[in-house]
Specification:
Helix content: 55-70%
Shape: elongated
Number of helices: 6
Strand content: under 5%
Order of helices and strands: HHHHHH
Number of strands: 0
Radius of gyration: 25 Å
Distance between the termini: 28 Å
Length: 165
């Protein structure tokens, strides 16, 4: 199984623990908070690097980000499996987790916006380069009616992009 497929495997939910006490609830909350904090720190660093145009350095975080994401999803699935017991034993802790999760979600949205902007800019650059290449390679001819002739597929030059540079 390759790395891509392994990252798409669902995280099995832990069976609900009917006797979730305050200590277990606190431990579960700490696990989730640690996972969120670690992932958020990594995402903030990635966002800074992408904003600075240092994409190669930002890509180096991919494996660590996948590992932290799995840890986060595992903690969230445990919390969901034990949500009713958690709410009974530590309702104030649950509300604190909700607040932290809202802040976490806001930072993720900033990261996704930065990544989408970088993607749009790079796509625009590649399309612009391709348009210039095609203009140079297409002959300027006119039809009998005096209109510009549209070039056939044999006049279109493919654009190759090296991802290793």
């Amino acid at each position: 199984m390759n790395q891509f497929n392994a990252s798409r495997q669902p995280v099995p939910a832990q069976p609900a623990n009917n006797a979730l006490g305050a200590a277990e609830a606190r431990k579960l909350a700490e696990e989730l908070m640690d996972a969120m904090s670690a992932l958020l720190g990594l995402i903030e660093r990635e966002t800074e690097l992408v904003r600075a145009g240092k994409l190669r350095e930002a890509l180096a975080f991919e494996s660590k980000k996948q590992e932290l994401s799995r840890r986060y999803v595992g903690a969230v699935s445990q919390l969901k499996a034990n949500q009713t017991q958690f709410a009974k034993s530590a309702p104030e802790l649950l509300s604190t987790l909700h607040r932290h999760h809202d802040a976490f979600r806001a930072m993720l949205q900033v990261n996704l916006t930065v990544l989408a902007t970088a993607h749009a800019v790079s796509e625009s650059v590649v399309r612009g380069v391709n348009a210039e290449i095609q203009k140079r390679n297409v002959p300027n001819t006119y039809t009998a009616a005096g209109r510009r002739a549209t070039p056939g597929p044999r006049h279109i030059t493919p654009l190759a992009v090296s991802r290793s540079l």
